[in-house]
Specification:
Elongation Factor Tu (Ef-tu), domain 3; 696 residues; 38 strands; Alpha-Beta Plaits; alpha+beta; Rossmann fold
Length: 696
Amino acid sequence: MDIIKMRNIGISAHIDSGKTTLSERILFYSNKIHAIHEVRGKDGVGATMDHMELERERGITIQSAATQVQWKDHTLNLIDTPGHVDFTIEVERSLRVLDGAILVLCAVGGVQSQSITVDRQLKRYHVPRIAFINKCDRTGANPFKVTSQLREKLGLNAVMTQIPLGLEDKLEGVVDLVAMQALYFEGEQGTEIRYAPIPDSLKGRAETGRETLLDAASMFSDELAELYLGGADIPEAVIREAIRRGALEEKFVPVMVGSAYKNKGIQTLLDGVNYYLPNPKEVKNYALNLDKGEEKTELLADQDRPAVALGFKLEDGQYGQLTYVRIYQGCLKKGEELTNTRARKRFKVGRLVRMHANSMEDINEAVPGDIVALFGVDCASGDTFCGGDLNYAMTSMYVPEPVISLALTPKDKKSSDQMAKALNRFTKEDPTFQTYVDSESNQTIVKGMGELHLDVYIERMRREYKCEVETGMPQVAYREAVQQRAEFNYTHKKQTVGAGQYGRVAGYMEPFADADYEFVDNIKGGAIPTEFVPSCDKGFKEALKRGSLIGFPIVNIRCVINDGQSHPVDSSDIAFQQAAVGAFREAYGKAKPCILEPIMKVAVEAPAEFQGSVFGSINQRRGVIVSSAEDGAFSRVEAEVPLSEMFGYATILRSLTQGKAEFTMEFEKYGKVPLSISETLIKEYEEKRKKEQSRP
């Protein structure tokens, strides 16, 4: 396989922008499938990449799905990602291993809330992209406005390389501004492409668009700049090379248009992927050399070097654990020995497969840049596999903190066993789905990114594990913090037979906005011996795990020690840990502790006539409206609302807007809880503790 003719791309976008419909068309035009099925099709088959039963029922993508297709002698590894913020880890893990992306936007909705999140993820992993403005056949479609939104809202240097031939129900094809030709997609499924001169009605707009394109692209090519300024004819290849260079530097975003549902513009988008997105050799990837103190080392897409691959996604299938890997250097061969550098374990590559949604094809070898899967490898998500004597580790993906939790209670003994199996599997597969047993209530608590996220996993337990569970009210991940400085001077003394325990710790605690916790050692003259200073740090960390107001972790605090005392015999690591815990508890009550709650960034999109109802619903939930904008018939409201007030909001919003509105929310920050609510929370916590203590 020629690595230069390989592309690793992901399709990511806001909910309902048409990612999965676009993937289906890509599979069809590249002859991977022979019939097109719709996401919510009447035939009941569903889209190829939405292979899970739940995805087909709900008409949404839950898990990212990988496949490989061939387009005009190029090999494309393709990953279709979910749009819901609840499944954001699927987007994170995919973008971590991809070289390029197609950012899909709706020609009516434009840049929406999740488009902004996806753009942030693309920038985090330095992924070059093509923007594809989909749904140009919809009423109200305006790709020119969407392009200006890309520039204004996302700060991208977005320039159209195509303009639509007609809009809404008159959409026939696209005008290519590089070749200055009109392309009509004819035949029942748009398979026949007819090239024709640009219609007179569009000539003026096409020439203006081409001027803008050449002006922007000439910044990346001296040859193009000279030809453009000299007024000479410019070969297509020169323009495409300039656009490619700009895209690879992440300073230029080519914008293409079309309609996946109406089969218009997909083949030209695939050509755009070949023209403008990088091959694995053009992307710089680094690993940390663990033998040289985590020195940054560049990986080269060279088949003759020892293999380095990253396991970025796990799936527990009927044949055991499936580990999706991206190869960055060297080749993976069946029977070859690799090392998992985190677990320091060697293993043999048994079965090597190439995925196509949920079906697989056995292969004997995979080259650099390939995305394949291994069977039966015991590993965690984000592990690095190395061949030869290499001891490299690759940085893992960013994992957002879960913000919502739910209490699960199995209905019977059989369900209890199955629930343990299911939770074990799901937590291994998804780092944003976490579970633990609450030491006080003895309940099993699951944490996730939103109500939909947890709903999907509970439904999967019922279907895949025949496990019936009852769910309790979701619990919000509150935090505690201090509001003023407080001194402590605590002596821990415990006399037992033989050596006792002795340690005195003095200093102060104060609010600290820059991090959850900071420890400062200001000890002078050896008042606390150096070997016991880390023990004090350990003790403070232990005390932070559970605050005294409502039993949640304490954040945004700085603990400073400036004095203390030790005993030549009785002082020990444990004595100073206990002294620090005691000192913390002594001062915490004096530091004016308060409760913090997660504040969510909520974006509501609704028809303009419902704007007043949306405002009212947010104000009732202690929300603060940040901005509101009317965009034709639609209005968009952005607000900051406490998570505790957002439960069941989807149902209320639907009834207020006749089911026409949608909202997304993601974690923004922690904010102080109002006094009245704070008092109620403290009261509830104290009653709960009394009940626990009165139990026999």
